[in-house]
Amino acid sequence: MDTEQVLHMNHGMGDNSYANNSIIQKKVMKEAKPILEESIMSLYSIIQPQCLKVADLGCSSGPNTLQMVSNVIDIVDSTSRNMNLKPPVFQFFLNDLFENDFNNIFKSLPQFLETLEEKKGKKFGSCFINATPGTFYKRLFPDDSLHLVHSSFSLHWLSQAPKKLGNKENVHITSTSPAAMHKAYVEQFQKDFKQFLKLRSQELVPKGGMVLTLIGSDKTREFRTAWSLIGITLNDMVLENLIEEIKLESFNLPSYDPTIEEVKEVIEEEGSFTLQSLESVVLDWGAANINEGVENNNNKFDINMKAEFTTKFVRAALEPLLKAQFGEETMDQLFLRYKNKIVQLIMELEILEFPTHVISLVKNV
Ligand SMILES: C[S@@+](CC[C@H](N)C(=O)[O-])C[C@H]1O[C@@H](n2cnc3c(N)ncnc32)[C@H](O)[C@@H]1O
User: Fold this and answer.
1) Which residues, listed in sequence order, are joined to residue 361 by a DSSP beta bridge?
2) Which one of 220, 270, 308, 334 has the minimum C-beta count within 10 Å?
3) Is there an atom of ligand 1 within 6 Å of 287 CB?
4) How far is the CA of 8 from the centre of ligand 1 (A)?
5) What start-end ranges are recorded for coiled-coil regions in this protein (predicted)?
6) Most confident of 56-65, 112-121, 292-301
7) Does any ligand 1 atom lie closer than 6 A to the CB of residue 64?
8) Whose CA is nearest to atom 20 of ligand 1?
9) Exposed (0-12), middle (13-18) or buried (19+): which is 331, by Cβ within 10 Å?
10) Please, what are the domains in the chain?
11) Which is higher by pLDDT, 22 or 96?
12) Measured distance CA(345)–CA(341) in Å, rounded
């Protein structure tokens, strides 16, 4: 299975769509906004382009995609005003893999641009929005053509999953995985992230900025990941002959959650960027804010609702990959069972958390 061809988030605006199940990713963007502000202010202290070129890599499709555009415009607008500069013209390049639901983004553009004009007034610089399909592990833009690269919640996806290495029942690293499996995942991450940095350093102008967020891990604390329960659920289905054993035996998820140290090591080794900041924020993947604007409060929602929320968040991201391997007909059953496992886990642990790394880099001259 070629990851590039099958990896994408659930399309459309339906109940299981990414667009309707990406509140956690929205929270991640909110957490990273102060870092984005710092990065743009520091870029503007050196370069004041007439046309600011920004790429969002792994943009997916849904409210978060254009929220990123809005955030950048607001920050640049206030930075330019503070510096008594005319706001630039904006050119955004929205990138994702070929199967991404770009049409859904395009359909929301007229409303977005109209609201932008109402908010900012006619004198505000124009905003051009382009789509750039393709993998961010290959070149996407000409040399020295971008001022800012943004990528939120995407870089934990690898270009391909490591081959199965004795982890028959699991589809991802767990605490019981063999050492060879850890090694294979780390090596794939190092190779991919190094390649990503090298390519972006070619595409960014000197002193261009990059703000990245990705799911991470922390060796000092054990976090239960959403992915590990998928393996357990699939294994149960194999035992009940609902899924062919061979299909589980040949499948690993193409995703790795690096530690802060692993991220730093690759940045230093690759050498094209200076690390401005790298911090980790711990977020709740077990029903953080089911309704927008409602503070996370464990008493407000019953466990069933929390498990439903978490299952939809995971389904929106993993269903296309799992469907390609295990068949569409198994998906409802898989996620029903998955939800029951989440109910048990919430009862055991109460809070399901994961660390997200927020990284700010500047390209060396
Ligand atoms: C969880 S979504 C995040 C989307 C959005 N940035 C947000 O914050 O809501 C991750 C996205 O990264 C994309 N992605 C994964 N690997 C990629 C690659 N190699 N090249 C481009 N996009 C990729 C996926 O298709 C998916 O749409």
Assistant:
1) 210, 275
2) 220
3) no
4) 7
5) none
6) 56-65
7) yes
8) 135
9) middle
10) 3-363 (3.40.50.150)
11) 96
12) 6
